[in-house]
Amino acid sequence: MELEERPTPVDPEVRAYVYSLVSALGGTGTDEDGRYVLGDDALACLKDIKRWLKLYDEKANRLDVARCLAEANLVEGDLLEILGSWPEEATDDKFRSKIALACRV
Is there a smaller number of Cβ atoms within 10 Å at the N or the C end of the chain? Predict the structure, then answer.
């Protein structure tokens, strides 16, 4: 009989930090008819998420940050909302371009 390997628990401090980054990224706004609204430091949050994926997960050879991002529904709940909310004709907006590039997590 084979024993199933249980994933090791994620450090609570790592989980809390990653969740705070995801929540600071943005969310649906009540005053914007339920549309996704970027947080004040959305670009910095995306850059921090990338850094944590690279430095923590790759260095420790674990997927703790990636697991937390999956639990927080980052891709479907945030990244797709961010990319899908911009009209196609908004190609000259440098801030949106930076955000879109930073979404390549």
Answer: N
- The pTM score is 0.81
Expressed in percent and rounded to 5, the helix, strand and coil fractions of the chain are: 60, 5, 35
- Give the C-alpha separation, 18 to 37, whole Å: 19
Q: Give the span between the Cα atoms of 86 and 79, in whole angstroms.
A: 12
Tokens encoding 14: 């790592």
Q: Which residues pair with 38 in a beta bridge?
A: 26
Q: Helix 64-71 to helix 42-52 angle, to the nearest 10 degrees?
A: 140
CA separation for the pair 4, 90 (Å, rounded):
50
Residue 105: name the closest of 43, 49, 44, 38 by CA.
Answer: 49
Segment 94-99 shows an average pLDDT of 83
